[in-house]
Amino acid sequence: MATLKADLPNTRWSDSMERSIMDQTLSNGEAVSLKDVVTTIGGTIKNIATNFGNKVIDLSEAVYEARVKDGRLQANMFY
Q: What domain count does the chain have?
């Protein structure tokens, strides 16, 4: 198959070339839906944000517990 620059607005493909590209692109027989793509990307971003938020919460709790423990240790040393 020939390589064509697809970014040029004046690129003209023959019917057989276009059919070949479409067959390769949609080889699984499913139509591409923008709604499905956006839903998948949105779900992925939501999972990443949720996991990141949970890690930040875990980190802040660990820092708080370490400060409390250090405060108790220093209080016992001086009093």
A: 1
Return d(Cα 49, Cα 38) in angstroms, integer. Answer: 16
pLDDT at 64 over 50: yes
What end-to-end distance do the CA atoms of the chain give, in Å?
Answer: 83
**CA 47 – CA 65 distance, rounded (Å):** 27
Q: Which domain holds residue 52?
A: 33-78
Whether residue 65 lies inside any domain: the answer is yes
User: What backbone torsions phi and psi does residue 31 show, to the nearest 5 degrees?
Assistant: -80, 150
pLDDT in tens, 5-58: 555 556 666 777 777 777 777 676 666 677 877 888 899 999 999 999 999 999
CA distance 46 to 40: 10
